## 1
Amino acid sequence: MCGRINMALDPSDLVDELDIEHSSYEHRERYNVPPGGTVPIIVDRPDADGLVQRRLEPARWGLVPGWAKDLKIGFRAFNARSETVRTKPMFRSAFARQRAVIPVHAYYEWVKTPEGKQPWMMHAIGHDHLFMAGLFEFKKLDEEESRAVGTDAAASSGWLVSATILTAEAQGHLAEVHDRMPVMLSRDEVGEWIDPTADAGDAEEFLSRNLTSFDARSIDRYRVGTAVGNVRNEGPELAQPL
């Protein structure tokens, strides 16, 4: 499971590196983003003229399908298991046609100890960002839902953009912290994962190759203070190693 992320670094730095053509994401330095918070997503999707464009956009963390009757469903869909994502009604449509990458600085997991839950932070070695495989959805908002989301950065012109992060069985030393990990991509895998011409079968094959080639040694981990366990806490001190 991946239920808390660190968005300390501005993903706009990736515009040139990942050939992003349009960005509507406005960065806010955050060290403790929970489900329901705003995250950046990188997607390849058509512009107003029908031309596929690579975009960096804001999304609400927690997938809300277009058919959802209650926006709160997203709080139960902030992760999608890679083993079942193709067949689960919640995710199968987005898996087939709306795949995204969520660039984050780091993520947190908790380990149970006799003294209580100990948080750990995981981040990439030699790179400022982790590229997490995800899915995105659009939800048309009615008047009541529009009032509920208010000024949410992920809502625009009566639509809510939402996203989920794919997870897989944890590998290597990451399994010592939690039995699940985000599906993490290399820079070279970003374009293949979000390719809008690839179907569900292609995406499933991609995941198989990705998980076989992934090296957990590319991710560092260290213990941080328990203050990160409270979503009201913010600031760089949350990411300081013990």
## 2
Amino acid sequence: MPVKPVTCLSDLDSALSEAGSKLVVVDFFATWCGPCKVIGPKLEELSNTLDFVALKVDVDNAEDVAGKYEIKAMPTFIFFKNGQKVGEMVGANAEKLKQEINNRM
């Protein structure tokens, strides 16, 4: 499943609602962030092989979303299930990201 961009809080709320009980992984990134450019394709790859919903939030374009979740470093991944935050991971470690996703599915 392709990674969907989120541009505002209402986009995120809709995506979380549509996902139901499925795991949702939100990647908070910046276009100028080197590690974000490395981990982005890995998230895409994982979303094509594992059954979860992947979303991307550009912190510079969706400041309301980044502000609500108090994003201070990129990349930050926030995990949701049933519309509720169930975890968070900071950094571009692909193996750790895969492990975090598998542990929450």
## 3
Amino acid sequence: MSHQTGIKEELYCSATAEVKKDVERDFDKLVAPVIEDDIPCYILYRLDTKISVGYAWLMISWVPDISSIRQKMVYASTKATLKTEFGTAYIAEEIHATTKDEISWEGYQRHKNAFAAPAPLTTREEELVELRKTEINTEINTDTRHQTLGGIACPLTPATEKAIEDLLNGTYDYLQFCIDLEGEEIQVSQAGAIAISELPKQIPEEHARYHLYLFKHTYDGDYLESFVFIYSMPGYTCSVRERMMYSSCKAPFLEKLQAFGIEIVKKLEIDSGSELTTDFLQDELHPKKILHRPAFAKPKGPPCRGAKRITKTQELS
């Protein structure tokens, strides 16, 4: 606009057209002819909808990629002025187009759909959405999962309950559990008697799992058998739903294990099986105690203070 600092160009109306049928059918017929491949322009297109001040208008900023830098700067600088002069209240929608497919009726619909779509969610927001999806249904029976203050209690399959009983009877010393995300129940996926050196190989690298291991070891000359519960989660290689289900079902599942009579001495959360070594489990179950706590040593004074001075009080005559 001529009154803007540094801009000597003036806006003028290069074309007008009358409504023929309706907004949708007129759009491509009226807009396409005024578009030039390399020359930017503004297009004000009246819509059928009415607002408080009258008909709503669509403002299209056509600035093709091949237009010069100066043209792009001029049109970017004058857009606000044009809206003010035309009447900002009348402009209900805006489109900034750089290719011709964006300035068609189909492109306009894509723009509206994208504008109406919800904003991208953060990881935390995705987890909250998935958590809401896993909320309890109104139909409740002994086999359905139910939500508690500590999470979501998924039912155990009969095979899982049998494996836990066999673990208590000494048949196994290691059980691995997985959650069936479709059926929303906890299944035993692996059972066996393994040495501690074989434990890291049992941890999947792409899926979350629960593990229950009977750690047989000695401490201070005593032979001990301690149940260790391990929750393995290999980071973000798992889906959001899988992460949320394993996190939400852990506490209720631990309660069920304790109901079977399993006293879990230690609960661990890991992202890699490489952490599971004998020394690691020993340190987790029996942390080293600091027997000697050195007393606070008073800092010494500065050296070479010099000889102590004696001040003699003079008697007044």
## 4
Amino acid sequence: MNPASLIPLAEPLPIPWAWFDILLIVTFAAHILFMNALLGSAAIGLFHALRGKHGIAHDAGQKLPPLLALTINLGVAPLLFLQVNYGHFDYVSSVLMGGWWLAVIPALLVSYYGFYTYKFGFDAMSAGKRNLLYLISVAGLLYVGFMLTNNTTLMLIPEAWTQYFDNASGFLNWGDPTLFPRFLHFMVGALAIGGLFIALLGEVRENDEYIDTGMKWFTHATLLNLVIGVWFLISLPREIMLGFMGNSLPATLTLMASLVSAAIMLMAGFNKRPKQTAVWAVLTVFFMACTRHWVRTLFLEPWYRMETTPVTHQYGSFYLFLGFLIAGSILVAYMLKLYFKSRQRRA
């Protein structure tokens, strides 16, 4: 069977596709930053808790429920923008995964309530129960991350979709050589940002131990992630890998920008400057989100080009979106201003 026959037709777009790609990249970068802070700080807290040191686990645990809520909310926007431009690939891969994909919601709920129980029941539980609850919650997040990685890789290779005719109950993308390096690249990156989050927490509280511990996790995880990034790059199909080595100028430039930004970020990390490191971390994550976009574009190029999608030039919904975005941003900024004012008064 020709895999191209399994790809649904793209729906016409109301405005040029580039707008949706830009919004996808920006919102995905924001989502990943919060996800990394959430999962990374939770994993680091669990590591220290299992060694009998509950300080980081307790303090990070107080931040995990709101971090998870923000991560989920910030994940909605990139998912919607992905479905606008690439929904005819993403929808198919989601359906093909079947129950594996549907189980993402229960896994998130388990993690969410687990972190809430940990936060509010910390003093009432024994160390063993706390660690078990923490472990289950982190495992739920790892499951969600692995399923998302499966989905985003499966949508890129329509030739793998024919497995459905041998396993109609749902399957995972085990045969893709990029699956594990891609997943580990995200997870080790989460450890790095999680360490940075703990260091920033230490700086706010003037806790040198948290700064030292957090920056150590950050620098070591980032160095390891550079190695995993090379593994991910060489696991790509040859034509796509060469795209990042000069055959595609935008893909090559975004990768180079990511590496330069990561190098400066690492220098700030080794100098134990959490705030400066955080600025470069945001830029690095943004450049990596751009690089990820080019990976997707190069994978889908044999099957689909965005330039071929019809555009109706109906800008009404876009202007409405921008209006609500601006108004919402102003309201959020005002709420944050009131929040920090109230904290200063209590201090």
